[in-house]
Amino acid sequence: xxxxxxxxxxxxxxxxxxxxxxxxxxxxxxxxxxxxxxxxxxxxxxxxxxxxxxxxxxxxxxxxxxxxxxxxxxxxxxxxxxxxxxxxxxxxxxxxxxxxxxxxxxxxxxxxxxxxxxxxxxxxxxxxxxxxxxxxxxxxxxxxxxxxxxxxxxxxxxxxxxxxxxxxxxxxxxxxxxxxxxxxxxxxxxxxxxxxxxxxxxxxxxxxxxxxxxxxxxxxxxxxxxxxxxxxxxxxxxx
Length: 239
What we know:
Residues 34-53 bind DNA. This is TetR family transcriptional regulator. It holds the Pfam family TetR_N. GO terms for molecular function: DNA binding. The protein is an all-alpha fold. The protein has a domain at 68-231: Tetracycline Repressor, domain 2. It has helices at residues 10-28, 35-42, 46-50, 56-80, 88-100, 103-110, 113-116, 120-126, 132-142, 152-169, 184-196, 204-233. The longest helix has 30 residues, at 204-233.
């Protein structure tokens, strides 16, 4: 019940708590944000926060799981609405675009200790979906859809250096070398794809196989993220 005797939807209350935690995490960082702060920001009693999560870190990990699931759903929806077959290049472009809109997930990607503080290491483990893009690239290799004259570790090294490199170096770039944010996803995706694409163009049948592999990978990764989120929210008590 609310203080006015109005029944409270636990799921709605959990979202309010996580929304408040997200705002404070970005504003003050993990180490300077308390349960009292979150309760005050959410407009609820401190005990209501503990009705959902027994500790501050469990709450923050639930928040990061929610943000990861939201990001993956956004990428999936963008690929479905693209109006063309999904390839690795399109997946990477939409992933960069989604990260640009999600400062919390970007903080996990870059292990930003100003935002994540002492939670950074645990958050990095949370933000690493099972298999990840390495699993997809391995699948594309077995199907002959990308070059195989380089090893999988070499290809993932290049992919990570370009992808993660943008998010790490963007704040450090001199103004003379900054490009519009909307141009970055295409630039990053093209650079990675040029490093992985095989010399021979894909046939129409292979384009269809690539499309299915990308969508299957994304659906599987999103399912895992949603299951982990559900587990993080399942600790709540009904009220």
